[in-house]
Prior knowledge:
It is a single chain. This protein folds into 2 domains: 20-128, Electron Transport, Fmn-binding Protein, Chain A (Pnp Oxidase, Chain A, Roll), CATH 2.30.110; 136-252, predicted glycosyltransferase like domains (Thrombin, subunit H, Beta Barrel). The protein is 17% helix and 45% strand. The protein has 3 helices and 16 strands. The chain has a 9-stranded antiparallel β-sheet with strand order 1-9-6-5-2-3-4-8-7. A 6-stranded antiparallel barrel has the order 11-12-13-16-15-14. Residues 1-15 and 130-134 have low confidence and may be disordered.
Amino acid sequence: MFQDTRPAELGSDGGTDPWADFRVDDPGEQLRLLKQLRDGSVPVQLSAPGVVAVASQLWSLDPAQRQISFSADGDSLPMQQLAQADEAVAVAYLDHVKLQFDLSGLLLVHAARSCALRARWPDLLYRFQRRATYRVRQFDRHGPRVQLRHPSLPDMRLTLRIVDLSVGGCALQLPDDVPALQPGTELRGVRVELDADSGFDASLRLQHVSTLHGTGPGVRLGCAFGGLDGDAQRQLQRYIDRTQQRRRLLALR
């Protein structure tokens, strides 16, 4: 749900693609998922490098012409900038499943009373954090956390609690007294501290901001990890595995 960054590229060593399990390349399955987005009027976040993320909805599908279109406000400066980008990324959520796909050939199409953002049909969809993927929800105030500088106020150092964690990303608790962050923000130089013995440096991309439910004051920042190196990926997977095993043992008591 949170890769919310873009999927990692195939390693330069030619090894196995670590994102292969998340790819949806079957045309029938792609069409089914896109129809769910369209028919359910599911919010879709569109973003491109250097452009403020834009909220939209999938408006139409044209498999024959290999085109899709999104609702658009033609007077919106971010939407105009997005249409001028070489490529963009679309992110949406179906229940607890995150869908992500690249967009290219962007073009604003104006009609008499409406406007749409047209794009080429995506070659691939990525489906993240499926129900079979184990995620760690943290309610312990002494659990994992991240340290970073506020992107708008570099002198402000933050330590934020991780309330949700997976191999693709994490959700952070941002207190009410900290200046707000906007979706699409890149968080660099982040230190992820899993426990006393493990941690790694990372970059995060803020995907969405939502209300916290039952985990304290503030808002929930849904973030995707940038390209993690091999050591960081191993530490993260080991931590999730250990947590899963510990909770299974507790459930047997």
